Every structure is written in C-alpha cells, then in structure tokens.
Amino acid sequence: MIDNIAYTPAYRGSKDFTQHQVPTANANGLSAAADDYMERGIDLNEQLIMNKPATFFFRMNGNAMTEAGIHSGDVLIVDRSVAIASGKIIAAVVNGELLVRRLQLNFNHATLLAENSRYASIEITEFSEQYIWGVVTCVIHILEKGLLSGGTVGKTNSNNKKGIHY
Question: Is residue 100 exposed (0-12), middle (13-18) or buried (19+ Cβ within 10 Å)?
C-alpha cells in the first residue's frame, strides 16, 4: 500500500480503500490536508451486515435476555445465513410466539435458554411447532430513549432548554 502511494505520479488520497481494508485509524501518521475533508463516514450496513438478502432487523420487546446485554427496545440484527449452533443467540418462532433465546443443543433435544432468571427455559420437543428464524449477530442498544418513541432529541423547546420533545 505504501509503495503504491510513494511511486504514483499524484497522490490520490485514501478513498481507494473500503472500511474493511482499513480496520483501525492511525492517529500518529501524517496525511494530506485534503483528506480531513474527504473522509467517508462509517456505513453501518457495511460494518454490521454480512449477507444483506438474509438479514433482518427486529426490535426486542421483553427482558428475557438482559444478562446477555439485550434489553427491551434494542434493535437486533438477525442473519438467516449464519449456521445455527449450540450457544448462539437466535430468533425463533415457538408455538406462534417470536422469541429471542440462547440455543442449547444436546444429543437428542434442544433447549431455548433465557438470560434472565425470571424466565424459564423452553424445551423443544418433536411435538412443538418451532421455526428458527436466524442467528442474532448484532445488538444496537439505544441510549437516547427519545429515539424509541419518535421524539426529537437535542432541539430547544419553548423554554429554550435542550432535551427530549414529543
């Protein structure tokens, strides 16, 4: 990469690279002054979605997975192309109810484990209606609760005070 920059007739900047080719920032290096104004923003789709046609977004509604860091209101990124394995957090439909649980596979049965002691484990039997929707790959935890209810955050109200407005 450095050889290409050093021997080209004109410096072209760093825009020839994608986010995945530049995993970390080098805060110590020198760069062209124009690069400060040409930086490409972080594309969350590029960073968080591995297989776009097989990826879905869900909003968590419940507290069954709080000890795994998934809270009510969080946005879950679920990828249907990721291989299902024991220990992964999955989204599944069991007896008509959409659930997010940790999958535990044993020799002859499967169990859906909640990451909250107030919720019981769910044994998957051959008689239960179940469908594993996909594997949860990312959790987006919303800190500004105004984003959940559709309010605007940071704008001034009639009293000239910043905050969450509805």
Answer: buried
Of 93, 101, 95, 92, residue with least CA distance to 121: 101
DSSP string, 135-157: EEEEEE----THHHHT-EEEEE-
Enter the pTM of the model: 0.65
Q: How far apart are CA 65 and CA 141, in angstroms?
A: 13
Q: 89: pLDDT confidence band, cut at 50, 70 and 90? A: very high
Please give the average per-residue pLDDT across 101-129, as a whole number. 90
Cα 53 to the center of its chain, rounded Å: 16
**What are the tokens at 52?**
């776009």
Other CB atoms within 10 Å distance of the CB of residue 96? 6
Distance CA(14)–CA(12), nearest Å, equals 7
Determine the Cα angle at 56 with ends 53 and 59, to 5°: 170
Q: Which residues of 105-117 are buried (b: 16+ CB within 10 A; e: fewer)?
A: eeeeebebbbbee
